[in-house]
């Protein structure tokens, strides 16, 4: 079993990631068939299956995944799926990120912040607008998870980096609660004895 896992990580994981990068539009290229079909040569179902396999690896081989992801910018490459026109592939990328964050690994969390890795997800959420669909739900659930698990560096990163985009969605309970969490943690860190704030 260990030998098979070793072979998979050494020889095949990179190939799966290459399939994703080769199947996604480059930055600035429209997500349409106008690119000549080259970027969509792999069936979307296969890309979705690769995401599921990566999620399995994150949960069952966290140390191997962590080293591989950090060394090879795997998260960045999987998030290229947010450029696909199939919404369920964008959702697959969001769930992949959610699975990584469930490990509560500080190195990976810092990697997200340092490399601005949530930008593609926020951009996809904003572009989705007011549509209530799987993409909307997946991103809101991701934010809710970050808030409930008190992943402070991510809370700060998201509000500091993206609130100008997200403020239009503050009417949504989960985003309102997210902003309140940010204010509680970063704007009111110490009691203010000069004023009486409501409890």
Automatic annotation (TrEMBL):
SUPFAM superfamilies reported in the protein's UniProt record: ARM repeat
InterPro entries noted in UniProt: ARM-like, ARM-type_fold, P4R3-like_central_dom, PP4R3-like
Major localisation: nucleus
Gene Ontology MF annotations: protein phosphatase regulator activity
GO cellular component, one term: nucleus
Location of this chain's protein in the cell: Nucleus
Protein name as catalogued: Serine/threonine-protein phosphatase 4 regulatory subunit 3-like central domain-containing protein
